[in-house]
Design goal:
Helix content: 10-25%
Shape: globular
Strand content: 15-25%
Number of helices: 4
Distance between the termini: 22 Å
Structural class: alpha/beta
Order of helices and strands: HHEEHHEEEEEE
Length: 259
């Protein structure tokens, strides 16, 4: 199987790497990841030379689903999505059709039929699949843990307390230093040393990304939140890209997900 890293394409996530590693070298992938090998799908049980009725229905369903998926319009920043960003909250999550950034975002821009291949692509792929230990994707921790390097996202509104953000690292370049934003008082950063936390202000269409949040728990009635560094990026608009924030090493908005 030939793999390549393409300019403009998002980094490979763990699940995708596991699939490619398994397809490339099933025995090595099983040892490194602890996941079962992918086995070939057995041929369908036939009767008089034809698949069973259940299998026929399954195939028809897959064809219809694939056709609908190909015909579905692009949804960027909620453009064709009926979701109301102002309603996003705990228990009222964005639906699958929601995209926080616009069509110009690298997360929504298609590569095209003949994308440019990054120099050294083969070496990067080989190193990723053979030399690195593929990590498991852990979706949240029930309790805060020093192993928690997630990127929790909170949605603030006018009912939440007002907090002033203060940076302690690279203060001159910290865009959010001194900014006042509303944050749910029970918001907590990830428990690991990165202590990431993001706050979405859906009314103003801004995403605030914070790194090394040192004030945890937050003062219940508002106050100062000390952070290592942070940034912000436009969110939920046609021109939002998810770029130029400054809480992650890649300077990408946390709403893009972990890459």
């Amino acid at each position: 199987m030939n793999l390549s890293i393409r300019t403009g394409e998002s980094s490979l996530n763990s699940a995708k790497i596991r699939r490619m590693a398994t397809q490339s070298n099933p025995r090595a992938a099983k040892t490194a990841c602890g996941y079962p090998r992918l086995e070939p799908t057995p041929p369908p049980v036939t009767g008089e030379g034809r698949p069973r009725r259940g299998l026929r229905l399954l195939l028809v369903g897959l064809i219809v689903a694939s056709t609908l998926a190909l015909a579905a319009p692009e949804t960027w920043a909620g453009a064709t999505c009926s979701a109301n960003p102002a309603s996003f909250d705990a228990g009222s999550w964005p639906p699958a059709c929601w995209r926080p950034y616009g069509s110009a975002s690298p997360f929504n821009r298609p590569l095209g039929p003949d994308p440019k291949v990054e120099r050294g692509s083969e070496r990067i792929v080989r190193g990723t699949l053979e030399e690195k230990r593929v990590q498991r994707i852990i979706v949240g921790y029930p309790r805060r843990s020093s192993h928690d390097f997630g990127h929790p996202i909170y949605y603030g509104d006018r009912a939440d307390p007002l907090y002033t953000i203060r940076c302690v690292r690279w203060v001159r370049g910290c865009e959010v230093h001194g900014m006042k934003i509303r944050i749910p008082s029970k918001a907590l950063p990830a428990g690991g040393s990165d202590a990431h936390m993001a706050v979405i202000d859906a009314a103003s269409h801004w995403e605030y990304d914070l790194w090394e949040v040192r004030t945890a728990p937050l003062p219940p009635l508002g106050g100062t939140v000390w952070v290592g560094h942070g940034g912000r990026t436009r969110w939920g608009t046609a021109d939002s890209t998810g770029r130029h924030s400054n809480a992650t090493a890649a300077h990408l908005g946390v709403s893009a997900g972990v890459l």
